[in-house]
Amino acid sequence: MIRRGLLVVLVGFFIALLIMPACKKEEVAPTEAPREYLLEQVGKTAIVRLYADGFEQLDVNDQILAYYLYQAAIAGRDICYDQNHRHALEIRDILEGIVTHPEGIDPTVLKGISDYTKLFWANTCQYDVRTMVKFVPEVSYEDFLNAATIAQVNGADFYLKERETLEDKLARLRRSIFDADYEPMVTNKNPPPGQDIITGSANNLYEGVTEAELKAYKEKYPLNSKVVKIDRRIVEQVYRAGTNGIKPGLYAEPLREVISNLEKAIPYAGPRQQETLQHLVSYFKSGDPEDFRKYNIAWVGNDPVVDTINGFIEVYKDARGVKGEYEALVSFVDQKTTKMMKDLAAQAQYFEDRQPWDEKYKKKEIQIPVANAISVLIAVGGVGPISPAGINLPNAQDIRETYGSKNFLLSNAVEVRRKAVAGRVLDEFALTEEEKELSRQYGAAASDVLIALHEIIGHGSGKVSEKLTADPSEYLKEYYSTMEEARADVVALYHIWDPKLVEIGALPSSKCAEASYHSFARGDLLMLRRIKTGDRLEEDHMRGEHMIVNYLKDKVGAIEEITRDGKVYLVVKDMQMMREGVGELLAELMRIKAEGDYEAIKELVNTYGIKINTEWRDQVIQRTEAINYPSQAALIMPRLTPVLNENGEIVDITISYTEDFTTQNLEYSGKK
Questions:
Q1: What confidence tens digit (pLDDT) does each residue in 445-483 have?
Q2: How far apart are the C-alpha atoms of 496 and 214, rounded to whole Å?
Q3: How far apart are CA 621 and CA 624, in angstroms?
Q4: 3-state SS class at 32
Q5: What are 377-389's pLDDT values in tens digits?
Q6: pLDDT for 264 beyond 60
Q7: What is the distance between the alpha carbons of residues 374 and 561, in angstroms, rounded to a whole number?
Q8: How far apart are CA 655 and CA 363, in angstroms?
Q9: Which one of 8, 431, 602, 620 is separated from 266 by 20 to 30 angstroms, measured CA to CA?
Q10: Residue 225's beta-bridge partner residues?
């Protein structure tokens, strides 16, 4: 599971990350120019530069390994676009054709199209990655058509079908680009009358099928397939390259390129990582879930300096919670921050023994999980350019219980977001000077530990009832992801008070717990700025956070709303009461997961997690717009460039930070 910082990272913790300033200033040598973090802001999306300090100190084999894994990530990037919407790649080609052939286009129109293109790249489609709601260009269709026509004259290739004109193509795609009411949500778990969660969602994970038809259908390739109806027969179309008599499937060519780069990477990996990558290669060839299982087991038992996540993994985009969105991330261990993660992981059994749930749901022998702070080199698809703050994988409950998990804090992604947008909202949304001072002193340290607790202790904790014959996700269905993210959140919120964290040096003071509680309450209010229309939440992390805060406010009474000078604030009324309420909710969420209690989680989510106060929402939007506060941050990745010898062999990799967001995305698309 991922924490979308925004994430990752995600919603609750990332909001905390955005409103908390860093603890210390960036140390820059006197001869160096000050670093750029926030390069631009497009609407409510900040475009920030990601730095990967320490890459130059890696062994050259690790650098070359990272380079080929980086290329493998880029090779699979288009898959996620296609999964998000059936026309996403066509739309992207049109946008990229216009911005690369701009001569003669009206500057105002060009800026509007360029801004829309940047948001399209940031969200990997025309739907906001947080709210799942469609966004549209701030130019007219007529101006857009005119700009595309000029770009075509300038030499842009719009990949027209046989006998299709540019005007025909844009007319065909017009509603997908310009009509906010047409297929308004990429994932819709509360569809309008006459639609279900499949037909009411605009993603490209299904075609021609309904939710009712799928209830009786069992996929053989649940994560990595698209389910379609052909001649009134339901068929799975599998994402795979093909091998040894297994026919190629969807996106076979890009997957072959992914495989090619993975195979080039293998010689530079250590023996155990070589085995892991071989399993990943086998999986992309066959598409077989058993190969993916072998890969996950090998991956979780390996702790290399340079690592990758690549595959069809998180199910947030699927209203059923079944289909995996393609994602790829390449990273190396951040030695400076990893000590806290490893110290925390070493205490996993300590925290498990102190969980506030029934003894029968506690693990008695926890393997120390892999836990690292990492510096991200590239993140695409489901994890980028808008990235998580933390990651815990694998998602399969039986693998986690038997083999353990790997947990990552994306330290450089977290840090750059702090530096780029820190501190803008503290004065606006913190009610008292005490809250503000707590955040200034302890906010950054608290947020890092909350993410670590969420991933290491949260997702890795607990065991399910023996009566369950399948993964809990199959019992809890569309509510599983909300439940699991909320469960990991309240694990973190419960244990942030444990004195063990100060004892092992993970936290500088118990005051960090107070700062984290204030921030979590404020964060739910601040989250409302993302919900421009309607009164419901769809995204799982948002639902989970909202459920927690509303439960603590409405049922426990630990959080209260206060209005001062016409402005609403969410304030922690009683710290001890809040922790007790967190423990109460945590015990129930663990019971629900362990017993597969669908009706109980449905009741919790629908009571506390979905509906929003639209008056608060409208006010929060006005307040954040007044301070020009971004809703999310998209990353510009470092550039890795191979250095070749006279024989054309790679002997070194250089890293640079000079590209802008447009140049980088055009390069990834092969347009630069």
A1: 898 899 889 989 999 899 999 999 999 999 999 999 999
A2: 42
A3: 5
A4: coil
A5: 999 999 999 998 8
A6: yes
A7: 38
A8: 43
A9: 8
A10: 238
Q: Where are the alpha helices (DSSP H) in 566-671?
A: 575-595, 598-604, 614-626, 661-668
b/e for 237-262, b at 16 or more Cβ within 10 A?
ebbbbbbeeeebbbbbebbbbbbbbb
> Helix, strand, coil % (nearest 5) of the chain?
50, 15, 35
Mode of pairing for the β-strands spanning 45-49 and 225-230: unpaired
The CA-atom distances, in angstroms, between 373 and each of 73, 174, 306, 410, 551 are 20, 44, 12, 6, 32
**Residue 451 dihedral angles phi and psi, to the nearest 5°:** -60, -45
Q: Are 585 and 647 in contact (CB under 8 A)?
A: no
Among 16-25, 226-235, 246-255, 326-335, the least confident range: 16-25
Q: Are 132 and 183 in contact (CB under 8 A)?
A: no
What would the two tokens of residue 156 be? Answer: 């842009």
pLDDT of residue 9: 34
Q: How far is 478 from 498, CA to CA, in rounded Å?
A: 33
**pLDDT, the chain, mean:** 92
- Amino acid letter, residue 305: V
CA neighbor of 108 nearest in space, from 134, 135, 146, 136: 146
Rounded Cα gap, residues 534 and 406, in angstroms:
37
Q: Which two tokens stand for residue 609?
A: 């997690």
Residue 431 · residue 325 · CB < 8 Å? no
Q: Which residue has the tokens 């130019």?
A: 139
Query: Which position has the token pair 């304030």?
Result: 571
pLDDT of 88-113, one tens digit each?
Answer: 999 999 999 999 999 999 999 999 99
Cβ within 8 Å of residue 29, ≥6 positions away: none
> Does residue 500 surpass a pLDDT of 90?
yes
User: What distance in Å separates the CA atoms of residue 469 and residue 188, rounded to the nearest whole number?
Assistant: 29
Q: Compute the distance between CA of residue 575 and CA of residue 583 in angstroms, rounded to an integer.
A: 12
Q: What confidence tens digit (pLDDT) does each residue in 270-286 have?
A: 999 999 999 999 999 99
- Name residues whose C-beta falls within 8 Å of residue 234's C-beta, 6 or more positions apart in sequence: 209, 213, 214, 217, 227, 228
Query: Mean of the pLDDT values across residues 497-526?
Result: 95
d(C-alpha 511, C-alpha 440), whole Å? 11
The Cα–Cα gap between 95 and 121 comes to 10
Phi, psi for residue 634 in degrees, rounded to 5? -105, 140
Which residues is 311 bridged to in the sheet? 327
Angstrom CA distances, 267 to 61, 64, 122, 649, stand at 9, 10, 33, 14
Contact 8, 389 (CB under 8 A): yes
Judge contact between 14 and 489, C-beta under 8 A.
no
pLDDT of residue 1: 67
According to the model, what pLDDT value does residue 628 have?
Answer: 87
What tokens does 435 get? 């809250």
Residue 79 near residue 381 (C-beta atoms within 8 A): yes
Whole-number Å distance between alpha carbons of 540 and 386: 16
Q: For the purposes of burial, counting CB atoms within 10 Å of the CB of 56, is it exposed (0-12), middle (13-18) or buried (19 or more)? A: exposed
